[in-house]
Amino acid sequence: MRITIAGSGAIGSLFATYLSEGGHDIHLWTRGNATQIQRKRDENTQIGFASNSPDRLAESDAVFVAVKAFHVEEVLTELAQYLHPDSPVILTHNGMGTDELAARILPNNPLLFATTTHGSLRLSDSHIRHTGKGQTLVGGLNDSGKRCEFLAEVIHHSLPPCTWSDNVYLALWQKLAINCVINPLTAVHKIKNGELLNKKFSEVISSLSEEITNVMLADGMDSDCDIIRQNALQVAKDTAENYSSMNRDLHFKRRSEVDFITGYLISRANIHGIDVPANLSLWQQIKNLEQSYEK
């Protein structure tokens, strides 16, 4: 397949290298104007990718958009100038809330979402490390996207396992629930994920889990407070030595995706008239920290 990957960061480069090794013709779309980009994964042979070609983009059989949630609107607006309306577009990022703007910008394209637990670390501009093997789940966001189950097979062939979901929104909510617990707490307290297993965090984790459950249930999603808490603690245990993405964003004084993680939960809570004080407090603390280094 001819595939364009918009975004050449850690996750975009991970998919680009694996899909290329799987025999696909990969083209990268980036912020710059470079027409050739080099990428190396682990100790594998470096791969050269054609990049930023409007003609290659227009000819793409599928497009992956692997950028931060707050860049999705800008990138999709760029892509829309060249994309064929039949080309499936697969979003992949932390958080939720970009589906409506994607549908507005690309009303005719099949739209999908891919959520992955693979770990990827950018060592330099051209070198990444596959830090943890995980799994990827893909599902359709609109009717035409729900007819693109073959894309899960395409990913699975190159970077297994990848499965298809008939209810990707539930999967996204389940991941969001974990992120709402781990990301802001580790960012505010400047700690690794594993430190959340300390008993001093038990009360706030329980409060967050209860609020998340109430919002998910109001949104029509199956949810259980104890399961959300247990899942978050299990992920914290499994990734004990890791720093969350939000922790790293604040550490390096970058904009975080809090508005699409905790912020999305708060927006849904407001629609349903549900109070979420624990989540709201963490969101405000993150925003205050961001504003402090933006001055």
TrEMBL record:
Protein name: 2-dehydropantoate 2-reductase
GO cellular component: cytoplasm
Record's keyword annotation contains Oxidoreductase: yes
Ranges for domain Ketopantoate reductase C-terminal: 168-290
Pathway: Cofactor biosynthesis; (R)-pantothenate biosynthesis; (R)-pantoate from 3-methyl-2-oxobutanoate: step 2/2
EC number(s) from the headed UniProt entry: 1.1.1.169
Reactions it catalyzes: (R)-pantoate + NADP(+) = 2-dehydropantoate + NADPH + H(+)
Single annotated GO MF: 2-dehydropantoate 2-reductase activity
Species lineage: Bacteria, Pseudomonadati, Pseudomonadota, Gammaproteobacteria, Vibrionales
Pfam families: ApbA, ApbA_C
Function per UniProt: Catalyzes the NADPH-dependent reduction of ketopantoate into pantoic acid.
Domain Ketopantoate reductase N-terminal as annotated: residue spans: 3-141
One record GO biological process: pantothenate biosynthetic process
Transmembrane segments: none
Family listed: Belongs to the ketopantoate reductase family.
SUPFAM superfamilies on file: 6-phosphogluconate dehydrogenase C-terminal domain-like, NAD(P)-binding Rossmann-fold domains
NADP as UniProt keyword: yes
Enzyme class: oxidoreductase
Database matches in InterPro entries: 6-PGluconate_DH-like_C_sf, 6PGD_dom2, ApbA, Ketopantoate_reductase, KPA_reductase, KPR_N, NAD(P)-bd_dom_sf
Keywords, sorted A to Z: NADP, Oxidoreductase, Pantothenate biosynthesis
